TrEMBL record, chain A:
All copies of domain RNA polymerase Rpb7-like N-terminal, residue ranges: 8-64
GO CC term, one of those recorded: RNA polymerase III complex
Domain of life, source organism: Eukaryota
Boundaries of every RNA polymerase III subunit Rpc25 domain copy: 83-209
Family, per entry: Belongs to the eukaryotic RPB7/RPC8 RNA polymerase subunit family.
Annotated protein name in UniProt: Polymerase III polypeptide H
Residues spanning the signal sequence: none
Subcellular location: Nucleus
TrEMBL record, chain B:
Protein name as it appears in the record: DNA-directed RNA polymerase III subunit RPC9
Keyword line: DNA-directed RNA polymerase, Nucleus, Transcription
Keyword Transcription recorded: yes
Family: Belongs to the eukaryotic RPC9 RNA polymerase subunit family.
Compartments it resides in: Nucleus
GO cellular component: RNA polymerase III complex
Species: Leucocoprinus leucothites
Lineage: Eukaryota, Fungi, Dikarya, Basidiomycota, Agaricomycotina
Length: 225, 223
């Protein structure tokens, strides 16, 4: 889930920080620049792990800062494909489920990666799974007795497998003008999205598998056989 | 900015949690010390000096720290009850099972205690077990093999459980002890160092902060 990335950069230490030890000031400066931000094709930066190389601080013409060339290691959140992680349900809609991990919440389970057969219940605003059901259309599924449905409610902890990741690097670009009227920009895409799946044995709400351990094992055998 | 190596090594959840908690506790100590020094100065009747003697912790790092610690210590994750010894023992014990690095990492992070949980991490091991189970219905020869694989699954689970059961929670307290005197000295130093009007007039600060600050930073850190 987490990994270390080695990054090289030049950081400026403000004169107001000259009183603190250089390494602390540099780490604070790097954290200010990177922490909680997504680096394209790298992942979400958490914090500096350590400094591996620091050059001598140089003063440049024009400001009073000390500029350091630094090579440092950064703790990065980037789960690898097929990794299993735990996340909470943030919200659900017809297209799928959005998950959150607290510090990261651009994780989605599209409807195709839900256990089949499943459907979205607009009254409950939640998806549900009907195990061992013959029904295939969402109409049939929604006619099923409520007691048989296994809902994936908001706030529930899910065990999910990472299927894909998308990085978007949308540059703001110049404002688009059409005949003197400013065109509204499209809604911003999140820079880093993770697509997850729960369409597998053992994945999905943790409670399903810990409560119904015995039942599940039977299911498992049936599915495989 | 240049990325030299996007993934130089993998980190377990526990390592990240330890790092973040360490940062958190130094931050707490610092802000406490800063408040205390301020109070002392006020009590001594000194005029209020500048506000921030420590390198300012920016908003974004605080946010991610707090949120990540919250996630890693939540009760559906085992991270809070792990110990460094337990983890290294677990990794050692897992070596005979011929698992890949990623699988070991996930076993450490998720600590599966039931067959389903392990199945998720290692589908193919579990698949083999079921496949062989199907075969055993027709042929008797593979039965032993099935037993062996079933055993290995069970023994991995026991290994994981033993690594969790030893959980002394004292690890948190001991970590920052070494750092404390050092930083206290630093903070006090920073207070003495900077003039009262430095924060008000930036230019002024730069003028006489430059020489002294650089000297202190480059030679010995004894300001």
């Amino acid at each position: 889930m987490f990994s270390l990335s080695i990054i090289k950069d030049t950081v400026a230490v403000q004169p107001s920080q000259f009183g603190t030890p250089a390494d602390e000031a540099i780490i604070a400066e790097i954290n200010k620049k990177y922490a909680n931000r997504v680096l394209h094709d790298i992942g979400l930066c958490i914090t500096v792990f350590d400094l591996s190389q620091v050059g001598e601080g140089k003063v440049r013409y024009g400001d009073g800062c000390l500029w350091y060339k630094v090579v440092f290691r950064m703790v990065v959140f980037r789960p690898f494909t097929s990794e299993v992680i735990l996340a909470k349900v943030k919200s659900s809609d017809e297209d799928g489920i959005r998950l959150t991990m607290g510090f990261f919440d651009d994780m989605y389970i599209p409807a195709v990666y839900l256990p089949q057969p499943s459907a979205f219940d607009p009254n409950e605003r939640a998806h549900f799974w009907l195990p061992d059901s013959e029904a295939s259309t969402s109409q049939q599924l929604l006619d099923s007795p409520v007691a048989e449905r296994m809902y994936i409610d908001q706030g529930e902890v899910l065990r999910v497998r990472v299927e894909a990741e998308d990085f978007y690097d949308d540059e703001p670009g110049p404002p688009k003008m059409a005949e003197g009227v400013k065109v509204l920009r499209e809604p911003k895409r999140a820079p880093y999205n993770i697509i997850c799946s729960i369409a597998e044995q053992g994945l999905g709400p943790v409670a399903w598998w810990s409560n119904a351990q015995q039942v599940e094992e039977d299911d498992d055998a049936m599915d495989q056989g | 900015m240049e990325v030299l190596n996007p993934r130089s090594s993998l980190l377990s959840n526990y390592e990240v949690l330890t790092l973040l908690q360490e940062l958190e506790s130094t931050h707490l100590q610092r802000s406490k010390a800063a408040v205390r020094i301020k109070k002392e100065e006020e009590a001594a009747g000194a005029p209020p000096t500048h506000t921030n003697p420590i390198p300012d912790i920016s908003e974004n790092i605080r946010t991610i720290q707090v949120e990540a610690i919250q996630y890693l210590t939540s009760d559906h994750l085992p991270t809070a009850s792990q110990t460094p010894n337990g983890i290294s023992q677990l990794v050692k014990d897992l070596s005979p099972y011929d698992l890949t690095k990623a699988e070991k990492l996930q076993i450490v992070n998720l600590t599966p205690t039931t067959p389903v949980e392990l199945y998720v991490v290692r589908p193919y091991l579990a698949c083999l077990t079921t496949l062989i189970l199907m075969f055993t219905l027709t042929t008797k020869i593979v039965e032993e093999l099935e037993d062996r694989l079933g055993d290995s699954m069970d023994s991995i689970l026991t290994t994981v459980e033993t690594s969790l059961s030893t959980k002394p929670t004292t690890a948190n307290g001991t970590r920052d002890r070494a750092k404390q005197p050092l930083f206290l000295k630093d903070t006090v130093g920073a207070w003495d160092d900077v003039d009262a009007d430095a924060i008000i007039d930036d230019l002024d600060f730069m003028d006489h902060g430059e020489g002294a600050g650089i000297e202190g930073d480059l030679d010995v850190e004894d300001d």
